[in-house]
Design brief:
homodimer, 421 residues, mainly alpha, Na+/H+ antiporter like fold, 17 helices, 0% strand
């Protein structure tokens, strides 16, 4: 049985939370999302003597769990403000946004690497890393701005879920091709199809079954135990935790990311918000755990390798942002120009998803260390750039709205679309 | 860098929380504190194939941290409802309760083991394990009953803190004697004295300095930044976490238990409850983490070894409860008979503190496996018995109070005292 030095963990928690708190104060003063401060804290810890001084390596297991729980609970909270019924409203737009947001960056990344003289399979890996959106960053920025229920936010979150599934499909494809055998492709295709079926099934079942279950339960409770609603046998939080961990685990068994499961669990729980209110209960838990996710995303950055690949990294970053804005913006053009821009920018951060793809390619020996570093640079640069860009895009729209109010809507939607893109 | 299987952790969390939730429902139906259900869940997991099936051994580090954070946050929450000013009111009584609650069980345990033919040092170890109260169990029961601000609760919690320091002093003494060298005793005595000074210093400094700091801060804020109170730069939760982890760590460096630090941190924060309200924020965090403490207290129980030592274990359990009731009850006699009984019963559970003492003795080769098992049995039996006894004692008093109200306080305190003990 592994023993853990609790004294050491207490010191680590004390230092990490102190740093995150200091970063949050600075971020609030200079008015940038606190998530940037948390990632920078991670970068500082990971690239100075602090990581060693704090002996974070010996407790890697513990902080990996904190990090993962942070992102799982974050997506659960995002799901909580996205009921099934609402998602269906933006379903079609989100699907188009996700599809074009996968196709355009993939083609862009593949052509870019091919033009630079890279081989077919390395180019495919970089292209695959260009595909998947890290919804965590965007969700946090949206949450910090209090815009979780804006139509653009829902499209982004909805598209990011579909995008994750599509991105996985692309990755499965690339890994299958890189692996080389025909049976591998068939197997990975099956895994990918299972994933798609899982997500669609949960959304359809959730959207159709839950309202009916609700009605039956409510009737039962009212007739049999009218007092129970005052002193419930079941507390909302453990139920929410069980559903969240359960669906996250099931998502994992389908080869999907755990966060897809927790997001779906949050969506399911959103339908029971009046019966089992748990949004307020997850807020302090997330305030405690979510910073660990972003700190440790930062910790994994190796600044030393960035000197060699700065130019190529910047070029790929620009391409990654532009292709998402074009692809997702095209998909969201029905919402109007400013909103399409918000969606495109919101889908831009690759974060940990890009890093995972790069790691798989490196692990398979299909991409070199330099190529890996370029993808890491792109993932982080889009992640660092997106919050500022997103909050700027949102503010531009909010300002516009205020102006529109004063001039009593002189502009029509068509005009806006053309002028903004 | 150690890797952790997140899928496995998600499954473990799902199963553990499901079990705890089911146990909580059963406990609510049969009206016993949910903490008993959680410990029983742990005993079931630890003594069946479930521990292996869930592969809890491979993630021992992670769940050890969850367990420790659970008890640290629990004591912080207890501290939150125990401001310094309030503790000073019960300070004298609590000190007498703690002192007699250490002396009587120590002498009782030592005589019992000596009469049974045990040697001097094993008898000293068992006696030391009889001393320390596990305040966690009692704090939870009190919390479940909504009686955290009852005078008896404060005496118990206050006495348990002093008791922990005294218990440590006794343990340091016993370890010093068992170790054999004169310099060891001197060193352990220094450690023990440091601990006492630390706790007393924090309480005195906290009680005297914080109110003055408050006044200065409030004046400053009102004059310079009158708007800041609406949108504070600092969120209460991170401040509370930093203070909690910081003081827990400092307590550890003084050789004290981390929970003493977190309790003192909670007390300090209680003075700022109006400025940085965080009681409501710790409730969901504790609802998530505290069950892990009690589940893993249960997991460590080895039922198989209990056959051999059942009779001796029961005898020591009875002695442990009776000596605490006599010692602490005598100390609390000024509160009245029923209240003295509550304090005595509330100080009875030994829980993890008794287990720690037994483990140290076993590790030093000074107690045999059988003696160790007897102490483990006693620790658990007092822990399992105390909640039911405590809630019974509280209910008896509450009922009495209702009757008293109706007969308009015919009984005087003196009469009550004699009749109840």
């Amino acid at each position: 049985m592994a023993v853990v030095d609790i004294q050491q963990v207490l010191l680590q928690l004390f230092v990490l939370i102190s740093f995150a708190m200091a970063a949050a104060v600075v971020c609030k003063l200079v008015k940038v999302p606190t998530v940037i401060g948390e990632i920078l804290v991670g970068i500082i810890i990971g690239n100075t003597g602090l990581f060693g001084a704090l002996q974070l390596g010996t407790d890697a297991q513990v902080f990996e769990v904190f990090k993962q729980l942070g992102v799982i609970f974050l997506l659960f909270a995002v799901g909580l403000v996205t009921p099934f019924s609402e998602l269906r409203k933006v379903g079609k737009t989100a699907f188009i946004v996700a599809s074009l947001g996968v196709v355009v960056p993939f083609i862009g990344g593949f052509l870019f690497m091919t033009v630079l003289g890279y081989g077919f399979i390395p180019a495919m890996f970089v292209a695959a890393a260009m595909v998947a959106t890290s919804v965590g960053i965007t969700a946090r920025v949206i949450g910090d701005m209090g815009l979780s229920d804006a139509i653009e936010s829902r499209v982004i979150i909805g598209a990011a879920v579909i995008d994750d599934v599509l991105g996985m499909l692309v990755l499965a494809m690339v890994v299958g091709i890189a692996g080389g055998s025909g049976s591998d492709i068939a197997q990975t295709a099956i895994v990918a199809i299972e994933g798609v079926i899982f997500v669609i099934a949960v959304i359809i079942i959730g959207g159709m079954v839950i309202p009916k279950v609700r009605k039956v339960r409510e009737k039962k409770v009212d007739v049999e135990h009218p007092i129970r609603t005052k002193s419930p046998l079941l507390s909302p939080l453990p139920i929410a935790l069980v559903v969240c961990f359960g669906l996250s685990y099931v998502a994992g068994t389908f080869g999907l990311a755990a966060i897809i499961g927790s997001f779906l669990a949050g969506m399911a729980f959103a339908e029971f918000q009046d019966r089992w209110p748990c949004k307020e209960k997850f807020e302090p838990i997330n305030e405690f755990l979510v910073p660990f996710f972003f700190i440790f995303v930062g910790v994994q950055v190796q600044l030393s390798s960035f000197n060699d690949i700065l130019l190529l990294g910047l070029a790929l970053t620009a391409l990654a942002i532009v292709t998402k804005i074009i692809g997702c913006g095209l998909g969201a053009r029905s919402l109007g120009g400013k909103s399409a821009m918000i969606v495109g920018v919101g889908m831009a951060p690759r974060g940990e998803v890009g890093l995972i793809v790069a790691t798989i390619g490196l692990g398979m020996g299909q991409v070199t260390n330099v190529t890996y570093s370029i993808v890491v640079f792109m993932s982080l640069a889009t992640t660092l750039a997106a919050p500022a860009m997103l909050s700027y895009a949102f503010k531009a729209k909010i300002k516009k709205k205020h102006i529109e109010k004063h001039i009593e809507k002189e502009d029509d939607d068509g005009q806006l679309k053309f002028r903004d893109r």
